[in-house]
Specification:
This protein has helices spanning 2-24, 45-58, 69-72, 75-86, 108-122, 143-155, 169-182, 189-214, 228-243, 251-254, 273-279, 282-285, 295-314, and strands at 26-33, 64-67, 90-93, 128-132, 159-160, 219-225, 246-248. Strand 1, helix 2 (45-58) and strand 2 (64-67) form a beta-alpha-beta unit. Helix 2 (45-58) runs parallel beside helix 9 and helix 8 crosses helix 11 (273-279). It has a single domain (26-314), classed as Glycoside hydrolase/deacetylase (TIM Barrel), CATH 3.20.20.370. By secondary structure, it is of the alpha/beta class. The chain is globular.
Length: 316
Amino acid sequence: MNRIKNKILLVGIIFCIVHITAFAQRQISITIDDPTTKETPKLHWLERDSIILKTLDDHKIKATLFVCGMRVDNPNGRFLLNNWDSKNHLICNHSYSHLYYNSTSNSSEIFIADFKKADGIVRSYKNYTPLFRFPYLKEGNTTGKRDSMRAAMKSEGYKNGHVTIDASDWYIDAQLTAALNRDINTDLTPFKDYYIKHILDRANYYDSLAHIVFKRDIMHTLLIHHSLLNALFLDDVLVALKAKGWKLIDAEKAYEDDVFKNQPDIEPCGESIVWQCAKQVKSISKTLRYPAEDAAYEKLPLDNYLKEYKERTSQK
């Protein structure tokens, strides 16, 4: 009898653990900036695009594609956007000219006109969604510029296509591309390994920061780019995230989280929405670096990683 009771108790404990784990599982979606048809080493733009789309299909998730108009304002670009639209990924606005809003040379009037010009590029697609992502995640270096753009977005029916997990995949991609331009047969293993490590690290950091600020789990949006790096290694990154307990969800679902309703009163404004909200908390603010993510933070670690990899492999 005792054995039966113990078995029942054990099954009950296991059941509870499984359900608690499932409930607490961290959730992450994929948002992709700057679709482009430019040529890169190794893969033609059509191959890059097809591989990224297939990776998302294989993992059964829908992403948000933030479109910079000038990069797709041509027949090839329209073909690319039609491919994403046919797969029911969200098609969103990332400006036309990718202007740096915090620059003194870019007034609110110039930036708003550019934002509206990009809307004309994306609005015709069936999966058009009025989300706007600021280039470089810079939302205005003065209160006036910040609030002018917020008013313009509201007037046009837009919401901010915020990032919760920021990253520097663009820098790793630039270094990988440069290496391939020097030698098309370059061993890309260390770039892949470093990239996976980088994304896992940034995901953990912003998730931990979110728990400190919001005292709860949030649905995350990860920022990555439509690049050679992600054509080659996005699948590896998603597999690694799953292995670390992350659940992949559709970006549309992630944007239902109330965290995206926040409009932090900070100046300059920008970065991850998690970072922005943390910046308003005095005890946390002093711990935050600015900018939140940048090439300067990755150059030495990546250089060292590549050097160590070369030394290890040369000894074999």
